[in-house]
Amino acid sequence: MSAFDNALNHEIASLLASLSERLRPGPLDAPSQQMLHRLREVFSPALAAHDEWLSTQLFPALYESMAGSDAVCIRDMESGMRENHRSLAAQWRALAPLLGSDALPSTDAQALLPSIEPLAALCTHLADFERDELFPMAERLLSDEALARLRS
């Protein structure tokens, strides 16, 4: 686990991947329902918190570390992350009504798969990008003090 782990990368990406695998065979069983319930609880707050952390803490710290230098790479990363987060939010808005609520059952498994699988793929892609590129770059560019603030 990275020092930068968060709910979006850690819990939600794996939850979506597990849910996608469980739904492929067909029935919407009790464990799948529990996963859907957990997804309804955590997705929106985790995405909002992650987006806020990136835009108010990580990227400003990266820009500050590049003071006086051309930060084209960081701007491109930030722009890409914002676009991907908008895509995640849009995919979630399309999926959420299909999930039902505690009082109402969600639709059948096969109806959920066309929405769950692309969301799972994008979430995994973002988690991989952050783990493999963004966070290692932050660890190279930022001071130990700045990293400690970001990790708290």
What is this structure's SSE topology?
Blueprint: H1 7-23, H2 30-65, H3 72-95, H4 109-141, H5 144-151
Concise synopsis of the structure shown:
This protein has 152 residues and is mostly helical.
Q: Which features does this protein show?
A:
Four Helix Bundle (Hemerythrin (Met), subunit A); elongated; 5 helices; mainly alpha; 152 residues
Helical residues, percent:
over 70%
The topology string of helices and strands comes to HHHHH
Radius of gyration: 17 Å
What is the highest CATH level, the class? Answer: Mainly Alpha
Question: Helical element count?
Answer: 5
- How many structural domains does the protein architecture include? 1
Low-pLDDT runs = none
Named CATH architecture: Up-down Bundle
Number of strands: 0
Distance between the termini: 15 Å
Class of secondary structure makeup? mainly alpha
Morphology call: elongated
Arithmetic mean pLDDT: 86
Strand content: under 5%
CATH fold-level topology: Four Helix Bundle (Hemerythrin (Met), subunit A)
The name of the CATH superfamily reads: nmb1532 protein domain like
* Main sheet makeup: none
